[in-house]
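pinned: reference chain
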Amino acid sequence: MTVEIKTLEAAQLTSTLSLPEQEQEFNWRQCWYPVTFLQDLAKNRPYSFSLYDEPFVLFSNQDGKLACLTDRCPHCAAKLSDGQIIDGKIECLYHGWQFGSEGKCLHIPQLPTDTKIPTNACVQSFKVVERQGMIWIWAGNAEAADEECIPTIPNLNKPGFVHTDKITELPCDLSYVIEHMLDPAHIHIAHHGNQGNRKKAQPLEMEIIESSVEGFRGRFRETKLPNQTWRNLDFISPSLAHLHFPIPERGCFFGQAFYFFPLGKGRCRILTRSYRNFVTWQVKFKPRWWIHLKQNKILQEDLTLLLGQQEEVERLGQNINQVYSPIPTCDTFAIAYRQWLDRFGSSLPFYRGYTTSNTSQNAEECNPNWVQRERSLQHTQLCSSCNRAYQVTTRLKQTCIGVAIALAALAIVTDGSAMQIAAVSASLLLVAMAIVADKIKIQLERSYTRH
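pinned: its structure tokens
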């Protein structure tokens, strides 16, 4: 599915109940989910992840084609992702059973060569494809997978547009994260001095253009000044919040897509894709890891708020409508999302709508220690660019310190010559470089979770 971008000023407003509820069904398994960016996918080794706490593993076969299997060996239930890739087959680390891209067992070392491999020695496989540099999994029956339903962004294929990508995991329930990304009103307060300016906080004019089982389209604009440009904010179920708008005075266009992936209860991923057709040199020439440093700071501010919000709602044990006090000039889209869950989200594991929720799977039942969960972002381990930068800065710091010490020792034994001055100067320069490298390393380390 191409994410359609319409000129909302000319769009005809439709009812938020565009189809009768009984004629609409949502099945969370019959959907495409974004796992990771292609550039962040580990090469030549298994890539493990979970979807609503179900384990999966990605790997490439001999032809370089991606395969996705349940991350569980049928022999003794060991994790296949702990194994290795041999000739395009994934091998279980426990007993060496090997499986092909369709999940069929192709080799069992403990079987005599003339013995047939048991038919039940297989692993369930899932449809996986790459679109616009992202890896997508279809969680249901592969025969029902329609690749046209993947929410791609047409502007990315147009000349003049550039984009940056970032993957992050948060120790927070997905619904709070989606609600947050559908809330433009928080930016000038929560991110004052970073991304926002509290003096610009103001009432917003907010409208839902249309709504259905596929999500909703909305628009908003500021009200302090007249005739402000409408900004479009859409929710494409189940995995995308898409902000996009023109900048008429500059003839430009900006968009930011937040793709969501539910790892499990209290854990989710955000795959953020920012794109535009202006000031493209910044994207082309700035290192990806450098861009991520500022984005991580913003997201860490968000996470602090999200965890506090989640803990309080879960502590109260009430529905959202009993806790929140929404206003139409601030919360229209966030509440629309919670109400979408009320209407269509009953099949989702541990969902929480506005007036309903899956109370049979609350946070404490799924994870008694959920409040003590890691409260920081996990990014550097997942991002190929930041991971490399972390390793490089670590080695650079160590090297600079070592060479600086050697040069300082040389300066001590050198008696008042030009070489002594050069050694001292070089040593001080290396110390300065080590300090800079350490500061960058610390920033990257704050979002680095070792496994």
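why pinned: The longest strand covers residues 252-264. The mean pLDDT is 88.
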